[in-house]
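Question: does this match?
>
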Amino acid sequence: IQTHAIVARFARTLAMTTRAGVPLLQSLQLAAAVANHPRYHAAIVMAREAVVRGETLSHALQNTALFSPL
């Protein structure tokens, strides 16, 4: 259940910030900050770095093995 809450918080934060016009990389940084779990925080930071390198967000998150395919 904690895992679902973490993923839900991440998804809500990412959706809310991008909908408000915050750039994706900054939105990912904000979402990592509210993850409240070290493994998920690290995974989101790694996904952000992958997006910076040109990977798609869905691929970057899937590669963390903590998020279901989008």
Notes: Residues 6 and 45 are 15 Å apart (CA to CA). The radius of gyration is 11 Å. The mean pLDDT is 92. The longest helix spans residues 2-19.
